[in-house]
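Side project, low priority. Logging it here so it doesn't get lost.
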Amino acid sequence: MVMFVLFLTKILGFWKLRIFAQLFGASHELDIFWASFTIPDIIFMVLVAGSINAAIIPILSDELYDKGNRQYNRLFKQLTMVFFLLCLLIVVVMFIFAPQITNWVVNNEYANRVLNIGYQMSASDYPLFLKLFRIGLLSPLFLSLSAFVTAYLQVRKQFFITSFAPLFYNVAIIIGTYILVTYFKFDVTAIAISAIIGSVLHLLVQIPLLIKYYKQDNGISITVKEVVENSSVWKAFKLAFPRMIAVLGEQFNTIVNTFISFTLTAGALSAYKFAFSLHLFPVNIIGGAVAQVALPDLAKYACQKEEGNFKKVLNDSIQLSMYLIFPLVAIMLVLRLPIVRLVYGTGAFDWQDTLLTAWCLALLTASIVGQTVMQILLRAFYALKNTLKPLIAISFGIVINLLGAYFLTNFFSHYYDWRPILEQIWLQIENANGSGVPFVMKSFIDDLSIWVTTRGDSTLAVGGLALSISLSYILQMIVGVTMLNKVRKVLSWKETMYPILLKLLNMLLMIIGMYVVFKLFDFKLDTSKTVYVLMLTAVTSSYGFLSYLIGSKLFSPHEYGMAINILKRIKGRFRNGTNLIH
């Protein structure tokens, strides 16, 4: 059910962007809105969002299972107050110095690039940016309160309502923006106001369930002295700090990628953004849902030192997420062109844009696996009260991404220089005449240093950004697995790697079969028409899912049984009219 709600939220996210495009187009004013909300978003991400999974949920879990409901509610109140006051302090300082910050952004070319603004702002943009920036500063305050309520409810395993909160956030932005612009003739300020309304709804939708659990301990009062002397509060900050550093590192990573992206053509950069948004679909829906549901149990078993149950929940979570992720990776890889055409192929989005976006999507598919596993590994580290080792793993990934973003964009910008050489090598091997291969390989290696350090003219350079992201997350996953096993031996060949390899084999068989079906129908259908593209996608993906499902009975019987049981339980709940909130 969490996956289903997250799927709806993601769909609404695309609809939200479509409404923005409909009302404002690719305008400079819309750029200013995105830029003005960047700093408030960073405040929330660094201070609160990163701390929730890394520190707040594990600490609250300890308190609930060690000391009971009353102490759990007391600690929740203390942590919420401390983090909210810290967030409030930063927001107030930013609000006071907003004119100076706005002046720096408007008059600084590098600041414009960091905030991803299409072209240099001028003095005439100052009033709009300042107004949007100050409105946006309200967002972290409401979202921080809401995030703590989410943590409180998730520790109590109330995932349905907490998953609905982002959905209400998107609905408020969509409806609010449309009404304010269409009927009241607002400018992009309508989006900012609607975002604040959405933040409030994000909180309010969770309040009734919070009150239900919290009212049993009415009269809990706290003092400043009590908060200062509470070791659990200090422990939360100690655990949260490395995660805050990691989030800052990821933001720095994004900034560097933004600077590199400005060396690409505008069409190539847009293709990358479109592909990046598509590849996050399975990561957010499946990886996010599985990791979200697993964390409270991981924290509980870590607290109670039940290593067997901890190990089982971790491995079951990884196996289930891989079981669900692999067929989607296969579909994105084989059907990347029709998927891109169906999602984006309207208006000015031409065939060249489709090819570039599909190229990026293909290179991003590997990162789907890495990101999904890393989300679960991070929750395991957090449950074990270890936030330093994840920081190390993420740091490795950041370094690889930064190096890859530079060297790989250069390498792929020479695509039409080195591609013929590789084709020549393949033809010589294919014709059983490998006598010239060493010479050609030497030529390829000699030129490699030039290709990775100089910029060519191919638009396929954007593939370097996509591939660097994939390599970054794959390395993070490998380092994360290695470090987690040093902390606690919970991942093994028999229970972790071997089942994943069987699923991978099932996916490869699915890819081969889908490719044959795809080519068979592609030759017979006029794919210049949307209806035939849709038909091609539906037939090929249906075959792929059927193939994977049949194969999973042999390669993944445990996850196959889990999936069937989940579907049966959901069907039974709807049939019996069970209240899903409970």
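Brief comment: The chain has a mean pLDDT of 87.
Revisit when time allows.
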